[in-house]
TrEMBL record:
Pfam families with a match to the protein in the record: Band_7 (PF01145)
TM region(s), chain numbering: 35-59
Domain of life: Eukaryota
Residue span, Band domain: 55-233
Region described as Disordered: 158-177
Compositionally biased residues, Basic and acidic residues: 159-177
Name assigned to this protein: Spfh domain-band 7 family protein
Organism, as annotated: Tribonema minus
Amino acid sequence: MERVYGTGSRCGCDPCQHRCGAGPRFRQSGAVDGAFLTLALLDLAVFAIGCAIVGGVYINQPNQSAVLTLFGTYVGTDSNSGLRWANPLVQVDRVSRRTMVTETSNLKVNDASGNPVEIGAAVAWHVDAPAKAVLQVEHYEDFVRIQSETCLRAFASEHPYDHHGDPDGEKTDGKGEGSAEVLTLLGGGSKVTDALRQQLETRLAVAGIVVEEARVMHLAYAPEIAQVMLRRQQARAVIAARGQIVKGAVGMVKDALDGLKEKGVKVDEDRTAALVSNLLVVLVSDREASPVVNAGTIYG
């Protein structure tokens, strides 16, 4: 403690006599500096603790997970929703576990028969293993989109657009016997959906992604062959319809002949042939038949 005397006082008295009650002044510099330093350190500690608490707080939304890594080391996955806290030095990567839908662009690809077709699909998927989605691939959403288009292109090239031979959709061997069913893009239905989903799920398993559904949303022949294929489909439809008509007409003619025999009506072979011919003309023709009265015999 340093003792300091003034050279004079405001009251004009002798500083050595202290008649005005003014005593010597003391400067407590060491005690003041120590208290200030202690206070500053305490404030700094409180600030650091507050920053650590605030810096480690994060929020998990419902169906959302947080992948935690510390200095490049995987720490764990937090799938609990609400206000959460972790070490401020831990990196938090949030991953949504909600169902998402990815639509591919309309791809132009040659089918198994070599015909150019346009095909597009919609894929419903969700993340099942958030750690794999973050650590195994870069930008898992882009990974899903690219793999969806790649898988769709490969799938379309493995199957024909439609049946071009047997209308029943079966491969035939040399004896004409059906050997195996052909899965087509146009008529496959749920089988196409299931097969596409399984192939795509195999590709996305590395990222911990589960495919809920993969459905073809657009399917058509390429514009350069669309008209030709349309005429081909129309011709096949006409042939199928004609075949069904002939099959029904033959059955009706047989029933008519059997009915005549049951009634005891005797008809020779020539008249039977003429009757069958006339019935088939009436039943199969797409125009109304004009009745002709034969004035003579059937022989001329």
